[in-house]
Write a structure and sequence with these properties.
five-stranded mixed β-sheet, 32% strand, four-stranded antiparallel β-sheet, 13 strands, 4 helices, alpha+beta
Length: 253
């Protein structure tokens, strides 16, 4: 006869084996689901300002404030193994030195939770919903104007118009004005419940039934130059107020 400790070890070993096999099957099964993400991003406005981009900045430098329009369909990235999706937009431009790779700076990002992450079904949530059922109103409250129902988009659908950036970008050289050949690019990272993280695949690339993003890159544009104010320029700099500039001009090929 086996002792109680040996029996417990056998049961635990069998449980971990089943859990590992189940997680492996779930992680590999998503490769059979087609992924066809698409995105369209356009520049709306860009300004280059000289000043302190953050309250803790030690020196004055040039920084860019970029507004954009984004229309993306990333719903195919969500499946039964998707926990959340991390999406970002980067501004890519050539480095000052030709031998160095292009510079990239994130101007916007967001975390999109899956439906299972928004409304998890766990023993605790089921117990809470059973013990605390929703209250039924006895009479309707008087309201001046009925509220319009909010349209909730499916996870992965992004429709942003005239969106402001979350982050202002700077360069290590302290100069951004008159920078040419700047593009905005959409990227993402899929965080699954089990398995490996997956990252952005460029357009034209693919792996199995997964396809790279269709679109996801704006037309190239040039950063505007700082406005020169002649004699009054020193007064503006001394006042600590940022210098506004004109909009960027697109590159015509």
């Amino acid at each position: 006869m086996h002792s109680a400790l040996v029996r417990v070890q056998n049961v635990f070993g069998f449980f971990t084996t089943v859990a590992f096999v189940t997680a492996t099957v779930v992680a590999l099964s998503v490769t059979l689901i087609p992924q066809t993400p698409s995105a369209s991003i356009e520049l709306r406005n860009v300004q280059v300002v000289k000043g302190r981009p953050h309250y803790h900045s030690q020196k004055r430098e040039e920084y860019a404030h970029i507004k954009f329009d984004l229309d993306a369909d990333l719903t195919s990235l969500f499946n039964w193994n998707t926990k959340q999706l991390f999406v970002w937009i980067t501004a890519t431009y050539p480095s000052r030195t030709a031998s160095e790779p292009p510079s990239q700076a994130v101007i916007w990002d967001a975390i999109i939770n899956s439906e299972s992450q928004k409304n998890p079904s766990t023993p605790f949530t089921l117990y809470s919903s059973f013990m605390n059922p929703p209250k039924i109103a006895t009479r309707a409250k008087r309201t001046s104007k009925p509220k319009k129902p909010e349209i909730e988009l499916a996870p992965g659908l992004l429709q942003l118009q005239h969106s402001k950036p979350k982050y202002q970008i700077t360069d290590i050289s302290g100069q951004l004005s008159s920078t040419s050949n700047v593009t905005l690019e959409v990227g993402w990272n899929v965080q699954p419940w089990v398995g490996a993280l997956t990252w952005t695949m460029e357009e034209g690339k693919g792996w199995g039934r997964w396809r790279g993003i269709r679109g996801g890159r704006s037309n190239a544009f040039n950063m505007p130059a700082l406005k020169v104010k002649g004699v009054n320029q020193e007064a503006v700099k001394g006042s600590g107020k940022p210098e506004k500039v004109a909009e960027a001009s697109p590159i015509v090929s």
